[in-house]
Design brief:
heterodimer; A: about 200 residues; mainly alpha; Rna Polymerase Sigma Factor, Chain: A; 2 domains; about 75% helix; B: about 260 residues; Serine Threonine Protein Phosphatase 5, Tetratricopeptide repeat; 12 helices
Chain lengths: ~200, ~260
């Protein structure tokens, strides 16, 4: 699927639509070398190296993907400008974490032109570990079903991809898996503490 | 709390599948139902777990794409400038090495050529000057005049024919063997020249003996017989004889024959 000449709307629709169109859209954005170089250059000019820059570009695409799927970004600003803002924000946040660079990072961020303000959910590493642990307890099959469902695959598509006899069977399996996951969360004391907080 | 009682409605609400009336009713119930609120919180947290899974998967996918991109220059045509530059560098180095090898090879060949038998012969051989030919008595031609005239006329074949007619063991005409040697040398009849110079050398005439010995050495060299015992012995004797007219030349010849370049 050629994405060279895609408009922002096409990228948004592809990513929000899920499935192979989402992958093509993300690949198209990833292939924008000019944007990638811009992000890497930004990071390298602010105490990072090229690897840091590439990591930020990846993390930025991950945030962009989620924001589009969750409807937090609907094309109010140019897509690639928005992604660049996410990457900048992520790197400055990374710098803030380093005690010795805290002051410098804040000054640097304050001096940055405020193009867009991306909504970003930053999850601490401890919580990420907990989420990964719960995911692994869910089982491979349930992970696949719920992942496809989260990516907006229809029940027919899920049935076909995962070899269910019908879309109804896929729907029932999805229901059971979702319920299991919520019960796992409910039974996890750390998640409950988090929930109360 | 029984989650299954609420899960479908929560999902409809969270995914925007409810119409306005249904959403209002749900939100009203949410305000007064603690279990529903807790179930909704669990739903949101479960959603976080699933998002974490998607994030992990996309991160791996991005790393795969990055690896593919990094491998492209090795298999495709990306960053050709650097490859060309390296090829150019290697090409220049190869050309420089080739030129150095050629210079070395030709230098070696040239140096070797300066010490070849032919070069040593040509570098040392001197054709007899016309003025050295003996003149005859008053009003008479010298007995060897015919030979001299032939040599002056550069007719070496006629000169050799004439000088070879003179008895070889005639001390008085020892020089006939000497000039026969030269006539043969110039005809590249090296073995005949060696024989003639040897016969001259064997004569007692000191005037021609040393010259004959020196030209005998040159005849051996021209004939490529520097390995002969007779040649080596004569060369050593000449080089070691301070009284010999050709001692210095013999020393130089000996040094040149022992040169590394030969």
């Amino acid at each position: 699927m050629q994405t060279n000449n895609w408009t922002d709307t096409q990228f948004l629709e592809a990513i929000a639509g899920g499935g192979t169109a989402r992958e093509a859209g993300l690949r198209g954005i990833y292939s924008d070398n000019e944007l990638k170089r811009k992000v890497i250059s930004f990071v390298r000019n602010r105490q990072g190296n090229a690897d840091d820059g590439q990591d930020m570009f990846h993390e930025g695409i991950i945030v962009l993907d989620r924001n589009i799927r969750e409807g937090k970004f609907r094309g109010e600003a140019p897509l690639k400008g928005y992604l660049y803002s996410i990457c900048r924000f992520l790197w400055m946040n990374q710098l803030r974490k380093n005690a010795h660079t805290t002051q410098g990072a804040e000054i640097a961020l304050a001096n940055e032109p405020d193009e867009y303000t991306p909504e970003i959910t930053l999850i601490a590493q401890e919580r990420k570990n907990l989420l990964n642990s719960l995911l692994s307890q869910l089982g491979e099959r349930c992970q696949q079903i719920l992942e496809l469902w989260k990516l907006s695959y229809s029940m027919e598509e899920i049935a076909e991809k995962l070899s269910f006899s019908s879309s109804d069977m896929a729907r029932k399996a999805k229901y059971r898996c979702h319920l299991s996951l919520m019960e796992l969360v409910q039974q996890n004391p750390e998640m409950q503490t988090n929930l109360k907080n | 709390m029984d989650i299954s009682l609420y899960i479908e409605r929560i999902e409809q609400h969270e995914t925007g599948a409810m119409n306005a009336a249904e959403r209002s009713a749900f939100e009203a119930e949410l305000a007064g139902n603690a279990d529903l609120r807790q179930a909704q919180a669990l739903y949101i947290q479960a959603n976080e777990v699933l998002e974490q899974g998607l994030e992990n998967k996309l991160r791996h996918q991005l790393q795969d794409w990055a690896s593919e991109t990094a491998q492209v220059p090795m298999t495709a045509t990306k960053t050709p400038a650097k490859v060309v530059s390296m090829q150019s560098t290697w090409m220049r180095m190869a050309i420089a090495a080739s030129v150095a090898l050629l210079i070395g090879w030709f230098g070696f060949q040239w140096a070797g050529s300066q010490y070849s038998d032919q070069a040593l012969y040509s570098g040392n051989y001197e054709k007899p000057n016309d003025s050295v030919f003996r003149a005859g008595g008053a009003g008479e031609a010298h007995p060897l005049q015919t030979g001299y005239d032939a040599m002056k006329a550069n007719n070496m074949e006629a000169a050799a024919t004439f000088f070879s007619s003179v008895l070889a063991d005639n001390d008085y005409f020892a020089e006939a063997q000497y000039y026969l040697g030269h006539a043969n040398l110039q005809q590249q009849k090296y073995d005949a020249a060696i024989t003639a110079f040897n016969q001259c050398k064997a004569r007692s005439s000191s005037k021609f003996k040393e010259k004959a010995e020196w030209n005998l050495l040159l005849a051996y060299i021209a004939a490529g017989k520097t390995g002969d015992t007779e040649f080596k012995t004569l060369l050593d004797e000449t080089a070691n004889d301070p009284a010999h007219s050709y001692q210095l030349k013999a020393k130089e010849l000996k040094r040149d024959l022992g040169s590394f370049w030969r």
